[in-house]
Amino acid sequence: MSGPIPLVDVAALKPAARRALLVRAAAVGVLALLLAALALATGAVHGSRAAPRSASLVVLDLSGSIGRPASATIVRALRAVAAQGGNAGLVLFSDASQEAVPPTAPARTLLEYVRVFSGAGLQHNPWSDSFSAGTQIGVGLAAARQSLARSGIERARVILVSDVGDAVTDLPLMRRELLAYARDPKLELHLAVVPGYDRSTVALFRRLLGRHALALGRPPATALRAESRGFPLPAVAVAVAIALFLAAYELTNAPLAWRETA
């Protein structure tokens, strides 16, 4: 059985062996740091997908004054927001409010409600028994802001679909909510009025929010566009750095090799 070949000048190779060991240890440390950076970069990408920062939110009036003529505007609003893509939610209100769809849901989810609020279905929907015929727009707008805050949405476009015939007792709350929307640069409130709307309340919306916030007889032309994810440049850059590092290590730290002389 053959064993290791003894070398007379083995002592002369010890400094080189120590240097090689240090180089390998440093290489392992650098590689570990690069892998940690890659994990952080890819985690940030996945995290941004799991928690969208922008969304659209439809706030739909289901009070007794919303009749069948309003169905066309409601359906167009739902379809318009769904067609924009990204994330969108739905808040329903009468004298109370309910978050039917969270704003983190895919926008196409709103298409499932088109049939519910089409034609006669508007008067006989799943919320007919739980909502009264009263109207409290301030309650609906407050519920929308709470829904966005609860979901961690930083930037949103809120589309109120209503005849804006508000109850007298709700007027102070509605004014406070309109001012809150007007003062928040990250929130856009748009009004899509249905047939038979209250002109005096529309004038209040125009005065507090500006003419651009009104969409008389139609839903807003555009909803908030889906937030662009962008190219995952940090993750790709770290992956390329790892590949280049490994290639450089292989080229500069090849194992010892020898051959017999002729």
- Span of the ends, CA to CA: 26 Å
Cross-sheet strand order for the largest sheet: 3-2-1-4-5-6
- What is the CA-atom radius of gyration, in angstroms? 32 Å
Residues in helices, as a percent range:
40-55%
- Unreliable spans are 217-229
Looking at the structure, the CATH topology of the domain at 53-216 is Rossmann fold
- Give the DSSP E fraction (strand runs of 2 or more residues): 5-15%
- Helix and strand sequence: HEHEEHEHEHEH
Helices and strands: which structural class? alpha/beta
CATH domain class of the domain at 53-216: Alpha Beta
Mean pLDDT over the full residue set: 78
Question: How would you describe the shape?
Answer: rod-shaped
Number of helices: 6
**Largest pleated sheet:** 6 strands, mixed
CATH superfamily placement of the domain at 53-216: von Willebrand factor, type A domain
Give me the CATH architecture of the domain at 53-216, please. Answer: 3-Layer(aba) Sandwich
Task: Give the number of DSSP strands.
Answer: 6
Describe this structure in words.
The chain has a domain of 164 residues: von Willebrand factor, type A domain (Rossmann fold), CATH 3.40.50.410. The chain has 6 helices and 6 strands, in the order αβαββαβαβαβα. A 6-stranded mixed sheet has the order 3-2-1-4-5-6, sandwiched between helices. α4 links the parallel β4 and β5. It is rod-shaped. The protein starts with 9 loop residues before the first helix and ends in a 10-residue tail after the last helix. About 5% of the residues have low confidence.
